[in-house]
Amino acid sequence: MSTAFQTADGMNYAPKGKPAPVVGPGEFVFAAVALDHGHIYGMTNGLLEAGATLKYVYDPDPAKVAAFQKQFPGVRAAASEAEVLSDPEVRLVAGAAVTSERCALGLRVMDAGKDYFTDKAPFTTLEQLAAARKKVAETGRKYMVYYSERLHVESAVYAGQLIEQGAIGKVIQVLGLGPHRLNAPSRPDWFFKKENYGGILCDIGSHQIEQFLFYAGETDATVVRSQIGNYAHPEYPELDDFGDAVLVGAGGATQYFRVDWFTPDGLGTWGDGRTVILGTEGYIELRKYIDVGTDNGPNQVILVNGDREQKINVTGKVGYPFFGQLILDCIHRTENAMTQAHAFKAAELCLQAQAQAVVISK
């Protein structure tokens, strides 16, 4: 996948890293089902680089299947979803369905005795979340979520490692900025229907809330205030083109985040995503996808603490350990990549933020 294709808009962001297999060929087989969002390419890349074997692809749209097979030669086009779910060799199903349909697919996957890996946001309603929690408890299967803005960004991975090492002390506040390029002509119709995509805080806000919980080590939080608006796209009346929120964690850490669809055309990537993490002994800033006005490239990590001030380019140096950890978790029934409770709590909070959001512009 070309760099231009990756950077045009976030929907087609599919980073490639260095292969770091945790299993041999054929040891862990997965399938890709439901190709409605381009993130399925990043999900598949990550699993393949970690050693997984891609056996099937299925989508009712032959054009989507053909494009996927072009990117991943050798993958078999299944005749139906049932063909995939009935194959005992398939251990994991990765899917990027229309957001409102992700839960139903996951329930079918878990009923078939397989683990499920879905694009974010994993749900559009609290009822779907409750159904998934119940099904996980019944089946013991995993309902994992591709929170790509942390899991598939090397600077974000490195920030987690620095925090774990105590580089900035106890995290007390996380500031997240998640602008995206709308590129409306490339978007499917469902993207502009709130019933289908869930709203901006449910959708791209899920990245921000997940990062807050992870970096601050919070297991729960309260949405203090959230806001949504449509400032500049009256032709899409159900689109939230702006949203922000304030959260307070059960352990006392706080978050403010802003997400929007206002990346200007002049920016060299789909969004100037930034995260600032304040600790009791220092702070970290991530310039994830671009360092504006420089040739430094993405994945810039700024670290300031009692010992030093430092700017580090971690592109190609950290990798994406989540995918290998996920494969091993599926094999050994562990929770090293991400706990189920964490995946669901991030989803719950983004749904709550969306549900209680004050409309500030129409």
Overall pLDDT level: 95
Query: Largest sheet, described in full?
Result: 9 strands, mixed
The geometry reads as globular
Low-confidence stretches: 1-6
Q: Report the CATH superfamily of the largest domain.
A: Dihydrodipicolinate Reductase, domain 2
Report strand %: 25-35%
Number of strands: 15
The level of helicity is: 25-40%
Record the strand order, biggest sheet: 14-13-12-11-7-10-9-8-15
Architecture (CATH level 2) name of the largest domain:
2-Layer Sandwich
Question: N-to-C terminal Cα separation, in Å?
Answer: 37 Å
Helical segment tally?
12
Total domains, how many?
2
CATH class of the largest domain: Alpha Beta
Structural class: alpha/beta
The ordered H/E elements are: HEHEHEHEHEHEHHEHHEEEEEEEHHE
Q: What is the CATH topology classification name of the largest domain?
A: Dihydrodipicolinate Reductase, domain 2
Tell me about this structure:
The chain is of the alpha/beta class and 362 residues long. It has two domains: 3-149 and 321-338, Rossmann fold; 150-318 and 350-361, 2-Layer Sandwich (Dihydrodipicolinate Reductase, domain 2). The protein contains twelve helices and 15 strands. The chain has a nine-stranded mixed beta sheet, with helices on one face. The protein has a six-stranded parallel beta sheet with strand order 3-2-1-4-5-6, sandwiched between helices. It is globular.
In short:
The protein is an alpha/beta fold and 362 residues long. It contains 12 helices and 15 strands.
